[in-house]
Amino acid sequence: MSSAVEAGPGASPDQPAAIAAINVTKRFPGVLANDAVDFCVWPGEVHTILGENGAGKSTLAAMLCGLYRPDEGHIERNGLPVRLRSPRDGLAHGIGMVHQHFRLVDRFTVAENVVLGDPDQTRILDYREIEKRVAEIGDQFGLPIDPRALISNLTVGQRQRVEIVKMLYRGADVLLLDEPTAVLTPPEVEALFTTVRSMTSEGKALVFISHKLGEVMEISDRVTVMRAGAVTGEVATSETNQRHLAELMVGRPVEVDTRRGSATTTDVAFTATGLTVLDAGQTVVDNVDITVHRGEIVGIAGVAGNGQRPLARALAGVIKPNKGRVTIGDNDVTGKGPKAARRAGLSFVPEDRLGTGLVPGLSLTDNMLLTRKRGFFVDRKSARAEIAASIDAYEIKTPGTEAEARNLSGGNSQKVLLARELAGLGESGGPQAIIVSSPTRGLDIGAAEFVRGLLHEARQRGAAVLIISEDLEEVRSLSDRMAVLYRGRIALEGRTDELPFESIGLAMAGVAEEETA
Amino acid sequence: MIPFRFRLERRLERHWWQSVLTPLLSILAAFAAGAIFLLIKGFDPITVYRELFKASFTSKFGITDSLTIAVPLILTGLAAAVVFRMNIFNIGAEGQLYLGAIFGSWAGLALTGNLPTVLGVAVVLVAGAVGGALWAAPAAVFKAYFGTSEIITTLMLTFIALFLMRYLIFGSHSYWRDNEAANFPQGKKIPSSARFELWSDTRLHWGLVVAIAIAVLVWVIIRFTSLGYDMNVVGSSDAAARYSGIPVRRTVIMAILISGALGGLAGATEVAGRAYALDPNGLELGLGFTGIVVAALARYNPFAIILVATFLGGLRNAGVALQGLPGERVPVEVSLMLQGAILLFAIGGEIFTHHRLSVSRVAEAVAT
Q1: How many helical (H) and strand (E) elements, i.e. helices and strands, does chain B have?
Q2: Which terminus, N or C, of chain B has the lesser number of Cβ atoms within 10 Å?
Q3: Do A43 and A203 form a contact (C-beta atoms < 8 A)?
Q4: Is the ipTM of this complex over 0.90?
Q5: Which of B12, B235, B240 is facing A358, going by the closest CB pair?
Q6: What confidence score (pLDDT) does residue B367 get?
Q7: Could you list the residue range(s) of the whole structural domain that residue B143 is in?
Q8: Closest of A236, A93, A115, A113 to residue A176, by C-alpha
């Protein structure tokens, strides 16, 4: 085994690593999140931590930036051991993390956010000076941003820039970016990569956390691949390819297969007609028509934030649409609430797992009861049997059926949610239709494949499935028909096999709007 | 520079014994704090505490008196627990108790004359529960529909209830006042058919059995019924409740009404078991507020509430007994002070069930 302090490929051996994790181990109850992990980044390089969800990437990053402390092993900065007690401590050592979920105050300006919590600021803030510095940093690294703009007026991509500027302003020269491209449009990704390159040319060390192979190959110098808490390989991107990385990541060849429904029926399972939802005066779902037949999967693709959430909620009865109708089978359930929709045979997997789909403070058993019909007394016995069976079938990692849902990892809580909502789907007496938002987000490849298999089987049994997902590949691999949602409107729709890939991409970016209208 | 650094870290695992240990340590810490006060005042804390326990928990009359005070405390403790566990803070059990006493004593005076005792007492209790629920209703509705803080509304309603009760006896010749009593204004006594029977020759009444039965009932509701389930969901996540179609407003209102009814029941048991009249002097004991301490120490567990209520009942009972100590009199407030200290330590100690304290040496070499 080579130690991480030795020179890796493409690195400069005469200087110490900007940051290194030496043999770090971190345990959480029932989970070995990081098992004797070695990792290092040289100044001026991009080093990616690649792995499926739950592989331990975020835990490693959290230890590098001071959010967690390793149970064993230690962190080195410029060759010297450091003990980071908090992210602020990390920042004091020049280590900054840009989280997937931004830590910004909406009602503050860019400049105010940049200095918020900065221990080096004097008591009286000189905003003219701060704004000048912010603009300078922006120019230097290709991060154009108006220091006086309010965060609430910025796009997601601009907010991410603010986060990066914030770290640079505080003098970070090790930056950790946690899945930075997940929320970005393709042009924004390109802009980010330009920034990343200008940062490395200034000698900054970049840690990039991702599971998207294409991007990883494009942006990184080296890649450390993790699986189940351990490092499965460290390679230079110049000496590898996507297939090899995928193998290291999943431990087996990835099979991307396309599945379509075999029996196309004309039985309408559920429909939305002219569905329109307003949120705070803004039209977020705009005159949407959807029909899903029995034995069919319909996919809704689109970049996040284009109306997927209100659309799903209006269809499932959680919110009342401002206009339009929803029917399930022969029942008009418009505005009648989620219980009416369920009685009519519709299951619903919402986008937010913990807190909406699952109740954080309740046990897994009790969470199984959330969408079940309940009498005067609740029937825990059958719920417990159901979750116990699901724990086996879905390989849910939990201390037991009575563990609180909040203690489960994202992937495992998603499995609990799916187990509940997919139960009996398409079987007689069970629900005949389902809306699934991001069915496999947060799942590892094996579990994602398992879930897709379940959705496919349900379709074969005659269930009607509506998938709303940001994962275009997922939509394309499963759906018989698909539509693209852009700014609350259906920008493109058709049979999945007949839609050219380029048109889908253009529709998602809003370019094809005029042509298809 | 301090050579040590203290940090609170979130506990990832929680054990059942931690939730028992914290209240116990809180009580010990409170007694330790009380000892400092006693020492300053020139008392021997060991003697005082020994007397305190002797008075409340060793003799037959001591124990039964402690249990008598425990009856309303169990009910006000349940009143707090039912909603506090949903993060709804009805701190107005005190006022709901007064209304329970007003309604209960009215029912006892007006309705129970010809009834057999069991039925008469039941009428008083039901009336008390209704009174308490009605008094909580405005807070419930405003909370559910306008998001008004129930902490403010229930507290304000408590003051209104307090002065309403005083007005009925001291300020007017109301139906509740014994207008034939010549001297000091007092409440009209309810007939014996509306009174709990006493146990043997003590002051303990059958209200204890009622209170324990209600504790079991509350446990069954929370643990086994759909209403209790809905309350758990709403308490943990509004969004999940809306997603599953649980009526959030209705559930919030129901929970606060149940809490109010329990507070009212406490007032009614006091009327039927101890005061036998609407008696402001005998009712203004802070039983409703103490219920909050009971619920917090019992960590909202109905069965633990019975034990904690008995313990705090004994503490209260002992306050009087302490005055009989030889030498300079120990102030009766000692027991109240201890009760307050216990709450403070219990709330303060709560953090240790979720977090652990880690102490580390500050190393010089860390800074770069």
Answers
A1: 14, 2
A2: N
A3: yes
A4: no
A5: B240
A6: 38
A7: 73-298
A8: A93
User: Considering just the CA atoms, what is the radius of gyration of chain B in Å?
Assistant: 23
Contacts of A317 in chain B (CB under 8 A): 245
**Contact A374/B229, CB-based, under 8 Å?**
yes
Cβ neighbours for B65, distance < 8 A, ≥ 6 positions apart: B56, B202, B203, B204, B317
- Domains held by chain B: number: 1
Angle in degrees, 0-180, between the axes of helices A186-201 and A156-169, rounded to the nearest 10? 10
CB contact under 8 A, A359 and B225: no
Tell if the CB–CB gap between B239 and A352 is shorter than 8 Å: yes
Residue B205: DSSP 8-state: B
Question: What are the tokens at A326?
Answer: 């929803």
Q: Which domains does chain A have, with CATH numbers?
A: 19-250 (3.40.50.300), 268-353+430-516 (3.40.50.300)
Cα A87 to Cα A91, B86, B105: the distances in Å are 6, 33, 62
In a domain, B344, yes or no: no
Nearest partner of A451 among A425, A472, A433, judged by Cα? A425
Q: Which of A337, A360, A374 sits opposite B236 (nearest CB)?
A: A360
Residue closest to B283 by CA, chosen among B83, B105, B80, B156:
B105
What radius of gyration, in Å, describes the C-alpha atoms of chain A? 24
B234 touches chain A (CB under 8 A): no
With residue B136 as reference, give the H or E element that holds it. Answer: helix B117-146
- In angstroms, the CA B325 to CA B308 distance is 26
Parts of chain A with a pLDDT under 50? 1-11, 253-255, 512-517
Distance, CA of B242 to CA of A339 (rounded, Å): 10
**Residue B83, token pair as written in the block:** 């909603």
- Residue A507: per-residue pLDDT: 77
The reply to whether B244 touches chain A by the CB within 8 Å rule is yes
- The candidate with the shortest Cα–Cα distance to A312, out of A439, A428, A407, is A439
The pLDDT value recorded for residue A517 is: 39
CA distances in angstroms from B209 to B47, B112, B269, B273, listed in the order given: 34, 21, 11, 12
Q: Which two tokens stand for residue A441?
A: 């987000």
- CB-CB neighbors (< 8 A) of B236 in chain A: 359-362
Position B206 in a domain: yes
CB nearest A359 (choices: B7, B226, B240): B240
| Terminal alpha carbon distance of chain B | 17
Q: Is B226 on the interface with A (CB under 8 A)?
A: yes
Q: Do A376 and B225 touch (CB under 8 A)?
A: yes
CB-nearest to A338 from B232, B235, B243 is B243
- Give a yes or no: residue B43 inside a domain: no
pLDDT tens for A1-57 read: 334 444 344 445 567 899 999 999 998 876 788 999 999 999 999 999 988 666 888
Number of neighbouring beta carbons within 10 Å of residue B155: 17
Place of tokens 């499932």: A316
Cα A462 to Cα A456: distance, rounded to the nearest angstrom: 10
Nearest to A356 among B225, B235, B239 (CB): B239
DSSP-assigned letters across all residues of A223-259: EEEEETTEEEEEEEGGG--HHHHHHHHHSS-------
Q: Which residues of A touch B (CB under 8 A)?
A: 28-29, 77-78, 80, 82-83, 85, 93, 317-318, 337-340, 342, 348, 350, 352, 355-362, 366, 369-371, 374-378
Residue B50 lies in a domain: no
With beta carbons under 8 A apart, name residues in chain B contacting A377.
224-226
Query: Is B28 part of the contact surface with chain A (CB cutoff 8 Å)?
Result: no
Sites in chain B below the pLDDT cut of 70: 1-5, 8-14, 324-328, 354, 360-368
Size (chain B), residues? 368
